[in-house]
Design goal:
Pfam families: Esterase (PF00756). The protein is an alpha/beta fold and 273 residues long. The protein has one domain: Rossmann fold, CATH 3.40.50.1820. It is built from eight helices and eight strands. An eight-stranded mixed beta sheet has the order 1-2-4-3-5-6-7-8, sandwiched between helices. The model has no long low-confidence stretch (mean pLDDT 93).
């Protein structure tokens, strides 16, 4: 009997690039639509925790963009910032997605241990803005007026940090199940300073979401996320259009796939005027 030869499954028109930051190697997952780009270039979605969601988002766009008149989803470049691991999540996300806060503000560790080192959010956002984005824009037809950043849980927290401190960096911010309780005091101070960063020409859309089953009373993520969306929409001279959505019958993990399908439609909407 001849030996059976198996081939690895790959995602069409996708690649992994390796980039270094802070003496660490990151895997940058990139997928490119298989259609001719519009004159202005493709919209681009920057995805945190790429090891867990890049494939799902890429395939969702590839499928749904076949009939945009029905789905509301158009071709887009997906750029996932991930780690050299086959696991869905890497421990470094605790450092990369957070600011330093007193231990008294952190939730209890579910296994009674100590949380990993934290506090790298500002540097990590700079890595994306100063290294990842220029490399992508150099090689691919990107529409710089249609840039989205997407994150879930601690990734959603980092999206909020980006919105509150770098409102000029993206036009669309999607924060799924954001861990507001994790850095709440930092977020409050950043939110207080945000109006000074807004300019009249900015048009920003933001989406904050949770799963219905996440509302177990511990962190009030639904109440806090909805309240933040309302405050953001009332800020400045209407530069921010923020909305909140709660997905029925979904928990903190299961909500990801529903969120991704909704997020790619949200990111596909024309820029706010």
């Amino acid at each position: 009997m001849e030996d059976t030869v198996y081939e690895a499954v790959t995602i069409p028109r996708s690649q992994i690039r390796k980039m270094t930051y802070d003496d660490r190697t990151f895997h940058i997952f990139v997928s490119i639509p298989d259609v001719t780009p519009p004159p202005s270039g493709f919209p681009v979605i920057y995805v945190l925790d790429a090891n867990s969601v890049f494939g799902t988002m890429t395939e969702a766009i590839r499928l749904q963009s076949q009939a945009p008149e029905k789905t509301g989803v158009y071709p887009a470049i997906v750029v996932g910032i991930g780690y050299p691991t086959e696991a869905p999540f890497h421990p470094s996300r605790y450092y990369d997605f957070t600011h330093v806060v007193p231990a008294s503000e952190l939730p209890a560790h579910p296994r009674g241990g100590e949380w990993p080192e934290m506090g790298g959010a500002e540097g990590f956002l700079s890595f994306i803005d100063d290294t990842v984005k220029p490399a992508i824009e150099k090689d691919l037809p990107v529409d710089r007026t249609r840039q989205t950043i997407f994150g879930h849980s601690l990734g959603g927290l980092l999206v909020l940090h980006a919105l509150l401190t770098r409102p000029h960096a993206y036009q669309c911010y999607i924060a799924g199940s954001p861990s507001i309780h994790w850095n709440e005091s930092v977020l409050s101070e950043e939110e207080r300073r945000l109006p000074s960063l807004l300019t009249d020409d900015m048009r920003i859309r933001a989406l904050l979401t949770v799963g219905e089953l996440e509302n177990d009373g511990r962190f009030a993520v639904n109440v806090k996320a909805q309240a933040m969306a309302k405050r953001l929409s009332a800020m400045g001279n209407g530069q921010i259009e923020a909305s909140f959505r709660q997905f029925p019958d979904e928990n903190h993990t299961s909500v990801l796939h529903v969120l991704i399908s909704h997020a790619i439609r949200f990111a596909s909407k024309p820029p706010a005027r």
